Amino acid sequence: MDVKARDCVPNVQQSSEEDHMELKRGPWTVEEDFKLIDYIATHGEGRWNSLARCAGLNRSGKSCRLRWLNYLRPDVRRGNITLQEQLLILELHSRWGNRWSKIAQHLPGRTDNEIKNYWRTRVQKQAKQLKCDVNSKQFKDTMRYLWMPRLVERIQAATAASTTAVTAASTTTLTSVVGTGQTVSGDDRLGGAQVTSSSYTLENSSTTAASSDSFGTQVSPVSDFTDYYSSSNNISINNPNPNCLEATQDLSGNYYNHGLDFQSLEQNNPWLDTIDASNNLFNAEDFYFLQQQFNFTM
DNA sequence: AAGGGCACCAACCGCCTGTAA
DNA sequence: ATTACAGGCGGTTGGTGCCCT
Fold it and tell me: What is the largest distance, in Å, between two alpha-carbon atoms of chain A?
Protein backbone atom coordinates (compact mmCIF):
# COMPACT_ATOMS: atom_id res chain seq x y z
CA MET A 1 0.00 0.00 0.00
CA ASP A 2 1.53 3.23 -1.07
CA VAL A 3 -1.31 5.63 -0.70
CA LYS A 4 -0.02 8.63 1.15
CA ALA A 5 -1.89 10.90 3.46
CA ARG A 6 -1.63 13.67 0.90
CA ASP A 7 -4.17 11.79 -1.19
CA CYS A 8 -6.79 12.54 1.35
CA VAL A 9 -8.65 15.71 0.46
CA PRO A 10 -10.32 16.92 3.61
CA ASN A 11 -13.78 18.32 3.45
CA VAL A 12 -13.37 22.07 3.26
CA GLN A 13 -16.22 22.82 5.62
CA GLN A 14 -15.04 20.21 8.09
CA SER A 15 -11.51 21.55 7.90
CA SER A 16 -12.74 25.05 8.50
CA GLU A 17 -14.70 23.93 11.52
CA GLU A 18 -11.72 22.08 12.90
CA ASP A 19 -9.60 25.16 12.51
CA HIS A 20 -11.76 26.74 15.16
CA MET A 21 -11.58 23.74 17.43
CA GLU A 22 -8.95 23.62 20.10
CA LEU A 23 -6.52 20.87 19.22
CA LYS A 24 -6.29 18.26 21.89
CA ARG A 25 -3.09 18.06 23.90
CA GLY A 26 -1.73 15.89 26.63
CA PRO A 27 -1.66 12.11 26.99
CA TRP A 28 -3.01 10.00 24.19
CA THR A 29 -5.97 7.69 24.72
CA VAL A 30 -6.09 4.10 23.51
CA GLU A 31 -8.78 5.10 21.06
CA GLU A 32 -6.59 7.80 19.55
CA ASP A 33 -3.71 5.36 19.31
CA PHE A 34 -5.81 2.89 17.37
CA LYS A 35 -7.09 5.59 15.07
CA LEU A 36 -3.55 6.61 14.25
CA ILE A 37 -2.33 3.05 13.83
CA ASP A 38 -5.25 2.13 11.63
CA TYR A 39 -4.83 5.16 9.46
CA ILE A 40 -1.11 4.70 8.96
CA ALA A 41 -1.58 0.98 8.27
CA THR A 42 -3.91 1.90 5.44
CA HIS A 43 -2.49 5.13 4.10
CA GLY A 44 1.10 5.23 5.27
CA GLU A 45 2.82 7.96 7.21
CA GLY A 46 3.84 11.48 6.24
CA ARG A 47 1.98 14.74 5.68
CA TRP A 48 1.18 14.72 9.33
CA ASN A 49 -1.15 17.70 9.44
CA SER A 50 -3.51 16.31 6.83
CA LEU A 51 -3.03 12.85 8.28
CA ALA A 52 -4.26 14.13 11.62
CA ARG A 53 -7.37 15.57 10.02
CA CYS A 54 -8.09 12.61 7.79
CA ALA A 55 -7.66 10.15 10.61
CA GLY A 56 -10.22 12.05 12.64
CA LEU A 57 -7.71 12.99 15.27
CA ASN A 58 -8.15 16.37 16.85
CA ARG A 59 -4.39 16.60 17.25
CA SER A 60 -1.65 18.60 15.65
CA GLY A 61 0.37 16.90 12.96
CA LYS A 62 3.42 17.22 15.11
CA SER A 63 1.72 15.49 17.97
CA CYS A 64 0.70 12.59 15.70
CA ARG A 65 4.17 12.30 14.25
CA LEU A 66 5.75 12.26 17.68
CA ARG A 67 3.30 9.72 19.02
CA TRP A 68 3.95 7.44 16.08
CA LEU A 69 7.72 7.75 15.99
CA ASN A 70 8.33 7.59 19.71
CA TYR A 71 5.71 5.13 20.80
CA LEU A 72 3.43 3.44 18.29
CA ARG A 73 5.87 2.50 15.56
CA PRO A 74 6.12 -1.32 15.58
CA ASP A 75 9.90 -1.37 15.61
CA VAL A 76 10.22 0.84 18.65
CA ARG A 77 12.42 -0.96 21.10
CA ARG A 78 11.23 -0.53 24.65
CA GLY A 79 12.66 -1.56 27.96
CA ASN A 80 15.92 -1.06 29.75
CA ILE A 81 18.99 0.37 28.11
CA THR A 82 21.54 -2.41 27.77
CA LEU A 83 25.19 -2.12 28.73
CA GLN A 84 26.12 -2.12 25.09
CA GLU A 85 23.68 0.63 24.40
CA GLN A 86 24.98 2.64 27.33
CA LEU A 87 28.49 2.34 26.01
CA LEU A 88 27.43 3.27 22.53
CA ILE A 89 25.51 6.29 23.73
CA LEU A 90 28.49 7.53 25.70
CA GLU A 91 30.84 7.04 22.80
CA LEU A 92 28.60 8.62 20.21
CA HIS A 93 27.76 11.51 22.48
CA SER A 94 31.45 12.17 23.00
CA ARG A 95 31.75 12.45 19.26
CA TRP A 96 28.60 14.30 18.33
CA GLY A 97 27.32 15.97 21.47
CA ASN A 98 23.58 16.40 21.82
CA ARG A 99 22.81 15.15 18.34
CA TRP A 100 20.18 12.80 19.67
CA SER A 101 18.63 11.79 16.41
CA LYS A 102 22.01 11.04 14.92
CA ILE A 103 22.92 8.97 17.95
CA ALA A 104 19.57 7.22 17.78
CA GLN A 105 20.29 6.11 14.23
CA HIS A 106 23.00 3.88 15.63
CA LEU A 107 20.72 2.32 18.20
CA PRO A 108 18.03 0.55 16.21
CA GLY A 109 14.61 0.86 17.77
CA ARG A 110 15.65 3.51 20.22
CA THR A 111 14.25 6.96 19.75
CA ASP A 112 16.10 10.22 20.08
CA ASN A 113 13.69 11.14 22.84
CA GLU A 114 14.54 8.03 24.81
CA ILE A 115 18.26 8.58 24.48
CA LYS A 116 17.88 12.20 25.40
CA ASN A 117 15.88 11.28 28.47
CA TYR A 118 18.46 8.69 29.41
CA TRP A 119 21.25 11.21 29.12
CA ARG A 120 19.50 13.85 31.12
CA THR A 121 18.22 11.64 33.90
CA ARG A 122 21.28 9.43 34.32
CA VAL A 123 24.39 11.01 32.96
CA GLN A 124 23.70 14.61 33.85
CA LYS A 125 22.62 13.51 37.28
CA GLN A 126 26.00 11.97 37.85
CA ALA A 127 27.78 15.08 36.66
CA LYS A 128 25.70 17.06 39.09
CA GLN A 129 26.61 14.75 41.93
CA LEU A 130 30.27 15.13 41.03
CA LYS A 131 29.74 18.88 41.06
CA CYS A 132 31.12 19.31 37.60
CA ASP A 133 29.69 20.37 34.32
CA VAL A 134 28.56 17.59 32.04
CA ASN A 135 30.32 19.30 29.15
CA SER A 136 33.56 19.91 30.99
CA LYS A 137 36.72 18.20 29.88
CA GLN A 138 36.99 16.79 33.36
CA PHE A 139 33.72 14.94 33.08
CA LYS A 140 34.32 13.88 29.50
CA ASP A 141 37.68 12.44 30.49
CA THR A 142 36.01 10.69 33.37
CA MET A 143 33.57 9.09 31.00
CA ARG A 144 36.18 8.15 28.48
CA TYR A 145 38.89 6.79 30.71
CA LEU A 146 36.93 5.46 33.61
CA TRP A 147 33.29 4.90 33.01
CA MET A 148 33.43 3.51 29.49
CA PRO A 149 36.20 1.03 30.23
CA ARG A 150 34.23 -0.09 33.27
CA LEU A 151 31.22 -0.63 31.07
CA VAL A 152 33.35 -2.66 28.72
CA GLU A 153 34.50 -4.80 31.61
CA ARG A 154 30.95 -5.41 32.62
CA ILE A 155 29.90 -6.21 29.11
CA GLN A 156 32.71 -8.71 29.00
CA ALA A 157 31.64 -10.23 32.26
CA ALA A 158 28.05 -10.37 31.15
CA THR A 159 29.01 -11.91 27.85
CA ALA A 160 31.12 -14.52 29.57
CA ALA A 161 28.30 -15.33 31.95
CA SER A 162 25.78 -15.65 29.19
CA THR A 163 28.05 -17.73 27.02
CA THR A 164 28.22 -20.37 29.66
CA ALA A 165 24.47 -20.44 29.92
CA VAL A 166 23.53 -20.29 26.31
CA THR A 167 24.48 -22.42 23.37
CA ALA A 168 27.02 -20.85 21.12
CA ALA A 169 24.98 -19.89 18.13
CA SER A 170 22.19 -18.06 19.82
CA THR A 171 23.51 -14.99 21.51
CA THR A 172 21.88 -12.16 19.67
CA THR A 173 18.34 -13.18 19.04
CA LEU A 174 15.29 -12.52 21.08
CA THR A 175 14.89 -16.24 21.46
CA SER A 176 18.22 -16.49 23.16
CA VAL A 177 17.37 -13.61 25.43
CA VAL A 178 14.40 -15.54 26.66
CA GLY A 179 16.63 -18.50 27.21
CA THR A 180 19.02 -16.60 29.45
CA GLY A 181 16.61 -15.62 32.11
CA GLN A 182 14.81 -12.72 30.55
CA THR A 183 11.19 -12.59 29.79
CA VAL A 184 9.25 -11.36 26.85
CA SER A 185 5.99 -9.96 27.92
CA GLY A 186 3.19 -8.70 25.76
CA ASP A 187 2.68 -5.01 25.52
CA ASP A 188 -0.78 -4.81 26.96
CA ARG A 189 -1.51 -1.54 25.26
CA LEU A 190 -0.79 -2.31 21.68
CA GLY A 191 0.13 -5.91 21.38
CA GLY A 192 3.77 -5.26 20.57
CA ALA A 193 6.45 -7.42 22.09
CA GLN A 194 8.18 -5.87 25.02
CA VAL A 195 11.41 -7.29 26.33
CA THR A 196 11.91 -6.95 30.02
CA SER A 197 14.79 -8.04 32.15
CA SER A 198 13.58 -10.33 34.84
CA SER A 199 16.57 -10.95 36.99
CA TYR A 200 19.79 -9.74 35.49
CA THR A 201 21.45 -6.74 37.05
CA LEU A 202 24.92 -5.34 36.94
CA GLU A 203 25.43 -6.46 40.48
CA ASN A 204 25.41 -9.91 38.97
CA SER A 205 27.76 -9.00 36.21
CA SER A 206 30.28 -6.93 38.06
CA THR A 207 33.76 -8.19 38.52
CA THR A 208 34.23 -6.55 41.90
CA ALA A 209 32.43 -6.93 45.16
CA ALA A 210 31.49 -3.30 45.53
CA SER A 211 30.43 -2.72 41.98
CA SER A 212 26.93 -1.96 41.12
CA ASP A 213 25.05 -0.87 38.11
CA SER A 214 26.40 2.38 36.85
CA PHE A 215 22.90 3.73 36.73
CA GLY A 216 20.95 1.60 39.10
CA THR A 217 19.08 0.10 36.21
CA GLN A 218 18.57 -3.42 35.13
CA VAL A 219 20.41 -4.33 32.01
CA SER A 220 20.43 -7.17 29.59
CA PRO A 221 23.32 -9.59 29.41
CA VAL A 222 22.95 -9.93 25.70
CA SER A 223 21.14 -7.85 23.22
CA ASP A 224 20.63 -7.07 19.60
CA PHE A 225 23.58 -4.76 19.98
CA THR A 226 25.99 -7.57 20.37
CA ASP A 227 26.52 -7.01 16.70
CA TYR A 228 28.30 -3.81 17.51
CA TYR A 229 30.99 -5.56 19.39
CA SER A 230 33.02 -8.61 18.83
CA SER A 231 33.54 -11.07 21.59
CA SER A 232 37.30 -10.85 21.28
CA ASN A 233 39.51 -8.60 23.37
CA ASN A 234 39.31 -5.87 20.81
CA ILE A 235 36.06 -4.12 20.25
CA SER A 236 34.86 -3.74 16.76
CA ILE A 237 31.92 -1.57 15.97
CA ASN A 238 29.83 -1.22 12.89
CA ASN A 239 30.63 2.39 12.60
CA PRO A 240 32.09 4.47 9.81
CA ASN A 241 34.83 5.63 12.10
CA PRO A 242 36.80 2.74 13.58
CA ASN A 243 38.53 5.11 15.97
CA CYS A 244 35.39 5.90 17.80
CA LEU A 245 36.14 3.43 20.54
CA GLU A 246 39.81 4.12 20.73
CA ALA A 247 39.74 4.70 24.45
CA THR A 248 38.19 1.35 25.16
CA GLN A 249 40.07 -0.93 22.85
CA ASP A 250 41.65 -2.94 25.61
CA LEU A 251 39.03 -5.01 27.30
CA SER A 252 41.35 -6.53 29.81
CA GLY A 253 40.59 -3.80 32.32
CA ASN A 254 44.11 -3.84 33.67
CA TYR A 255 45.29 -0.80 31.82
CA TYR A 256 42.34 1.26 32.88
CA ASN A 257 42.75 0.32 36.47
CA HIS A 258 46.13 2.01 36.34
CA GLY A 259 47.50 -0.58 38.66
CA LEU A 260 45.27 0.44 41.53
CA ASP A 261 43.94 -2.20 43.81
CA PHE A 262 40.49 -0.81 44.14
CA GLN A 263 39.16 -3.34 46.57
CA SER A 264 41.88 -2.77 49.13
CA LEU A 265 41.74 0.95 48.63
CA GLU A 266 38.06 0.87 49.21
CA GLN A 267 38.35 -1.12 52.39
CA ASN A 268 40.91 1.29 53.86
CA ASN A 269 39.37 4.56 52.84
CA PRO A 270 36.69 5.99 55.11
CA TRP A 271 36.09 8.76 52.61
CA LEU A 272 34.38 6.24 50.46
CA ASP A 273 31.75 5.65 53.08
CA THR A 274 30.10 8.87 52.10
CA ILE A 275 29.46 7.63 48.61
CA ASP A 276 26.24 6.01 47.70
CA ALA A 277 27.50 3.31 45.42
CA SER A 278 24.14 1.75 44.86
CA ASN A 279 22.68 4.32 42.59
CA ASN A 280 25.56 6.14 41.06
CA LEU A 281 27.20 6.19 37.73
CA PHE A 282 30.44 5.47 39.52
CA ASN A 283 30.88 3.08 42.35
CA ALA A 284 33.16 3.63 45.31
CA GLU A 285 36.35 2.54 43.60
CA ASP A 286 35.55 4.71 40.65
CA PHE A 287 35.15 7.70 42.90
CA TYR A 288 38.51 7.02 44.44
CA PHE A 289 39.99 6.88 40.99
CA LEU A 290 38.30 10.15 40.14
CA GLN A 291 39.75 11.77 43.18
CA GLN A 292 43.20 10.60 42.20
CA GLN A 293 42.87 11.75 38.64
CA PHE A 294 41.07 15.03 38.96
CA ASN A 295 41.56 16.06 42.58
CA PHE A 296 37.86 16.16 43.11
CA THR A 297 36.61 17.70 46.29
CA MET A 298 33.32 16.38 47.53
C1' DA B 1 -1.28 6.10 56.31
C1' DA B 2 0.12 10.38 54.41
C1' DG B 3 2.81 13.50 52.08
C1' DG B 4 7.06 15.16 50.31
C1' DG B 5 10.86 14.34 47.23
C1' DC B 6 12.62 12.25 43.38
C1' DA B 7 13.17 9.73 38.94
C1' DC B 8 11.41 8.64 34.77
C1' DC B 9 9.37 9.49 30.47
C1' DA B 10 5.68 11.05 27.33
C1' DA B 11 4.50 15.09 25.26
C1' DC B 12 4.91 19.87 24.03
C1' DC B 13 7.37 24.08 22.41
C1' DG B 14 10.03 26.89 19.53
C1' DC B 15 13.40 27.18 16.21
C1' DC B 16 15.65 25.64 12.05
C1' DT B 17 15.92 23.48 7.52
C1' DG B 18 14.36 21.60 3.27
C1' DT B 19 11.23 21.67 -0.40
C1' DA B 20 7.48 22.56 -3.41
C1' DA B 21 4.71 25.99 -5.53
C1' DA C 1 14.03 34.49 -5.75
C1' DT C 2 10.47 34.26 -2.52
C1' DT C 3 7.19 32.31 0.43
C1' DA C 4 4.60 28.99 2.90
C1' DC C 5 4.38 24.74 4.80
C1' DA C 6 5.94 20.21 6.59
C1' DG C 7 9.11 17.85 9.04
C1' DG C 8 13.06 17.39 12.11
C1' DC C 9 15.53 18.52 16.12
C1' DG C 10 16.99 19.80 20.81
C1' DG C 11 15.30 21.75 25.01
C1' DT C 12 11.84 21.84 28.44
C1' DT C 13 7.72 20.71 31.09
C1' DG C 14 4.30 18.17 33.52
C1' DG C 15 2.14 13.84 35.00
C1' DT C 16 2.75 9.59 37.28
C1' DG C 17 4.49 6.28 40.23
C1' DC C 18 7.80 4.86 43.58
C1' DC C 19 10.38 5.39 47.76
C1' DC C 20 11.47 7.27 52.08
C1' DT C 21 10.41 9.53 56.29
Answer: 78
